[in-house]
Amino acid sequence: MKKSVLSAMVVLLLLGVAAYAAFFVAPTDAKQGVIYRILYLHVASAWTGLTSFFICFIANSLYVLRRQPRWDWLGVSAGETGLVFTTVVLLTGPIWAHPVWGIWWTWDARLTSTFVLWLLYVSYLLLRTLVEEPDRRALLSALFGIFAFIDVPLVFGSIRWWRTQHPQPIIMGAPGAGLDPTMYRVLFFTWLAMLGLMTLLLRQRYRLEAMRGDLEIIQRELEAA
Amino acid sequence: MALLSNTTVLLGKELRTEFRSRELLTTTTVFVLIVMVLFSFSFDPTSEESRRFGAGLLWLAFLFAASLMLQSCFLREQTSDTLSALRLSVSDPFAIFLAKLAANTLFLLLTELLLLPVFAVMYNVAVLPTLHWLVLVFFLGSLGVSIAGTALSAISAQARMRELLLPLLLLPLLTPILVASTEVTAALFDRSPYVQWKGVGFLAVFDLAFLTILWLLGEYLVEE
Amino acid sequence: MKNLNSVFAAYMIGWTVFFVYYISIARRTSVLREDIERLKNSLSRGK
User: Fold this and answer.
1) Which of A25, A81, B24, B187 would staple B196 via disulfide (CB 3.0–4.6 Å)?
2) Chain-centre distance of CA C10, in angstroms?
3) Comparing C-alpha atoms, which of A12, A78, A162 is closest to residue B176?
4) Do at least 3 CB pairs under 8 Å connect B with A?
5) Which of A80, A92, A206, A212 would you mutate first to test chain C, the one with the most C CBs within 10 A?
6) Any residues with CB less than 8 A from the CB of C43 and at least 6 apart, and which?
7) Is C14 close to A207, i.e. CB distance below 8 A?
8) What ipTM was predicted for this assembly?
9) The whole model's pTM is what?
10) Rounded-to-integer distance, Cα C36 and Cα A208, Å
11) Which DSSP letter does residue A36 get?
């Protein structure tokens, strides 16, 4: 209990410092003005979401090979946290895009593939709700998770090659070419704070799933008795 | 070699089952036809517009049709309880998948080739000059759809709400296929048609990647 | 300082999403705990 409160406080502190840095330490972008500061949250969330999905993929693969329930628990937890971070990416993106590009949404490679990624993991979580038997659910969702993750680079590649009407947008395009070193540092620090937040959420979610798993075992034994 | 002979035997079984009733082929063909007609109301189907939207429309119709057609692929085995017999009969469960996906590719390709003339006439697009390339794209695209679809239908057959679940799982996964085949097909429908080799290569890469995962994971998909 | 409101809005939305998710985990955990308690009680009564 003490430990979890302490770690939560550390993560909150990190997030606070990251936000402070994003607002006051990082210099204002010459072309975009103050609005670009959204990108610290946006880009760091995107990286964290991808990290989370990668963890989900590793857990899925390990479940298929080892069949230990804990990999299933980690898989669903990582899938869910990844989805939360990707949701933040999809919500903050348009807020930034509207003043900069003049439109809320464009079917650009990054946006579209993030959206498809989001849909894939929604399907992953949905599949889990539709299989009753715990072992079967774990196996099937793990298999689908592997397919989904392998699909991600293909989705990204296809959309990038054929579906980007705009020349590469401003992210990693214009300012990315000569991103200020302070901006880099702030961005990486925000990512670090976000990873802390992810770990925190992941751990809580994992505990919940582990509890649910135990309950399912007890219920099964009761029914058998 | 056992894999090959097993696959041929199972493929024969799949084809016999289908061609006895032709249920799947008929319903899928009619479905695509309906979608084609309905799509014509969503834009002005002049030849100029058709050249721009036609390819996407065609592939969307194929994708929807496939996500419905592939339902029965493993469901049939489940309802008649033949999956365990099937698994016992082969040394490598990958043969089951190979046979099913070959059959599904064939069915899809048949439907597509059957409806291509109808599409060409209705939407006023010239398809004859590039027919051989179109067949290649249809083959690679249908193969990719069938590989992913056969694998996922093994998953969805074991879940509740399976009729709705399969399109939900399959369609986002097929985004790369839709994008690449639409682009290649659109280039072939163009006034001065050309083959987009990048797209053809991409489709081949997709097929190969998914076939490899299916080969690795196949045995778990049909596990008891 | 044009668009500062948008920046604040974005950060608010982002943090709200994380917070809501955290709350939802906590809520689901407490519901599950209650279930387990109830199960335990009915078990001890059954004996």
Assistant:
1) B187
2) 21
3) A162
4) yes
5) A92
6) A222
7) no
8) 0.90
9) 0.90
10) 12
11) G
Written as six digits, the tokens of B158 are 């074991």
Interface partners of A (3+ CB pairs, < 8 Å)?
A: B, C
Q: Of B169, B176, B206, which has the smallest distance from its Cβ to A144's Cβ?
A: B169
Neighbours of chain B (3+ CB pairs under 8 A): A
Nearest CA to CA, how far is A106 from chain C (Å)?
A: 18
CA distances from residue B53 to A204, B11, B56, B65, B187 in whole angstroms, order as listed: 48, 36, 6, 18, 11
Which residues, other chains included, contact B48 with Cβ-Cβ below 8 Å and sequence gap of 6+? none
- Please count the CA atoms within 13 angstroms of the CA of B18 that sit on its side-chain side: 23
pLDDT tens-digit map of A117-131: 999 999 999 999 999
Residue A65 identity: L
- Chain B residue numbers with beta carbons less than 8 Å from the beta carbon of A131 are 158-160
Chain C residues 1-47 with a CB less than 8 Å from chain A = 1-4, 6-7, 9-11, 13-14, 17-18, 21-22, 25-26, 28-29, 32-33, 35-36, 39, 43
β-bridge partners, A29: A33
Say yes or no to pLDDT of A177 above 80. Answer: no
B88-134 pLDDT, tens digit per residue, is 888 788 998 999 999 999 999 999 999 999 988 888 888 888 888 99
SS3 content of chain C, % helix, strand, coil (to 5): 90, 0, 10
